[in-house]
């Protein structure tokens, strides 16, 4: 599993800063495979798509 | 009481004439103890010359990422190792976003593209998008598509785009430190064409790009010379992978001083809270800015980052007894 903000392994290093930043950012990396996702932000939400693992919404 | 505040009260508040560059610098150098009085004066100026209404706007990225320019603050430049990937928004999603924006009470919907300037494909997408929005939603459409040719300016007017955003980003003397792929003067040229076309001019920038206090005053004075209908005021939100990714965030009191200074430089403009206010000012600062010269907000999310929920800002406006500007109202 990977950090969806920085793309590094979630179990390695500290990701508290990433988690805090994610409150005002959509995810950029797929947490399953660390591919960069295609992210569309709209006024009321976002969608993030991984070519392998599908689309997430927030 | 500070002499500069006395002068501002006599001229800006009484006559609606903005401060000049040297005076703006004096404002930016005021000590923290003078901040409450400064914010109150900026608020009084805003109320007298703009009224209590607040213009609410939503923005949307029609084309994200992959930009050929090197604006050092921007995660959408294709020249940096930013995690932002290129993506286009389809027309049905664009219309849905306009509907969601209008549902908040917003009167403005700005369509933005990360480009140097629009190509034929983008202009065709704009034409289809603006038409579809106008058929489905009662909201004014603005655009921000980079540098334009005269032909493109004319096309946007014909489509019914009523306001065009093109930020100068920072003052002329600092611009080459922030962008090297085009010039401040090229941006000014587009703004001149937009003004002459009859479209409303929206032009602001970002504070915290490494500019000095003197350059911040220079920027406010240059914007005042342009005299835009609207000035969106952003605060740098340092983005990973960009050259300014490690730049410190503007300190809250400096941000509030800048808001008041920009209001005293441009007493009659629409001064809009834009990106970065959440990390620079937080909830309390957002309130103070609205009581210190701001009279417009972007609600909801930004282009690649997230904002406060629209309901939080709307509740704040209600609490401050500041009515949301309606479509029939004019500043």
UniProtKB/TrEMBL annotation, chain A:
Keywords: Biotin biosynthesis, Iron, Metal-binding. Its cofactor is iron-sulfur cluster. Transmembrane segments: none annotated. It comes from the Bacteria. InterPro entries: BsaP_C (IPR058605). Residues 37-56 form the Biotin synthase auxiliary protein C-terminal domain. Belongs to the BsaP family. Required for the activity of the biotin synthase BioB. This is Biotin synthase auxiliary protein. It comes from Actinoplanes palleronii.
From TrEMBL, chain B:
It comes from Actinoplanes awajinensis subsp. mycoplanecinus. GO terms for biological process: biotin biosynthetic process. Catalyzes the conversion of dethiobiotin (DTB) to biotin by the insertion of a sulfur atom into dethiobiotin via a radical-based mechanism. It catalyses: (4R,5S)-dethiobiotin + (sulfur carrier)-SH + 2 reduced [2Fe-2S]-[ferredoxin] + 2 S-adenosyl-L-methionine = (sulfur carrier)-H + biotin + 2 5'-deoxyadenosine + 2 L-methionine + 2 oxidized [2Fe-2S]-[ferredoxin]. SUPFAM superfamilies: Radical SAM enzymes (SSF102114). Homodimer. The keyword DNA-binding does not apply. This is Biotin synthase. [2Fe-2S] cluster binds at residues 110, 202, 272. The keyword ATP-binding does not apply. InterPro entries: Aldolase_TIM, BATS_dom, Biotin_synth/BioAB, Biotin_synthase, Elp3/MiaA/NifB-like_rSAM, rSAM, rSAM_sf. Residues 52-277 form the Radical SAM core domain.
């Amino acid at each position: 599993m990977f950090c969806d903000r920085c793309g590094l392994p979630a179990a390695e290093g500290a990701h508290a800063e990433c988690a805090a930043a994610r409150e005002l950012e959509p995810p950029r990396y797929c947490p399953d495979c660390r591919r960069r996702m295609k992210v569309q932000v709209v006024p009321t939400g976002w969608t993030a798509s991984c070519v392998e693992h599908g689309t997430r919404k927030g | 009481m500070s002499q500069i505040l006395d002068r501002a009260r006599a001229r800006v508040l009484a006559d609606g004439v903005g401060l000049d560059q040297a005076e703006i610098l004096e404002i930016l150098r005021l000590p923290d103890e003078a901040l409450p009085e400064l914010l109150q004066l900026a608020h009084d100026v805003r109320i007298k010359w703009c009224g209590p209404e607040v213009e609410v706007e939503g923005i949307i990225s029609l084309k994200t990422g992959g930009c050929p320019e090197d604006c050092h603050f921007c995660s959408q430049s294709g020249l940096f190792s930013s995690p932002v990937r290129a993506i286009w928004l389809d027309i049905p999603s664009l219309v849905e976003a306009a509907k969601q924006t209008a549902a908040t009470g917003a009167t403005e919907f700005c369509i933005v593209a990360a480009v140097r300037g629009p190509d034929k494909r983008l202009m065709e997408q704009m034409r289809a998008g603006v038409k579809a929005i106008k058929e489905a939603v009662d909201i004014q459409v603005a655009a921000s598509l980079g540098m334009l040719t005269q032909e493109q300016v004319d096309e946007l007017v014909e489509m019914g785009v009523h306001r065009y955003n093109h930020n100068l980003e920072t003052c002329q003397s600092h611009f080459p430190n922030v962008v090297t792929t085009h010039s401040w003067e090229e941006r000014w040229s587009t703004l001149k064409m937009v003004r002459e076309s009859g479209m409303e001019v929206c032009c602001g920038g970002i504070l915290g790009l490494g500019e000095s206090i003197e350059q911040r005053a220079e920027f406010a004075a240059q914007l005042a010379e342009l005299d835009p209908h609207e000035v969106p005021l952003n605060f740098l939100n340092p983005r990973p992978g960009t050259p300014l990714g490690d730049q410190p965030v503007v300190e809250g009191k400096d941000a509030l001083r800048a808001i008041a200074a920009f209001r005293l430089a441009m007493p009659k403009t629409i001064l809009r809270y834009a990106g970065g206010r959440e990390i620079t000012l937080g909830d309390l600062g957002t309130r103070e800015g609205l009581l210190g010269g701001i009279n417009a907000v972007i609600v909801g999310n930004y282009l690649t980052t997230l904002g406060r929920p629209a309901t939080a800002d709307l509740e704040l406006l209600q609490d401050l007894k500041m009515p949301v500007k309606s479509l029939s109202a004019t500043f």
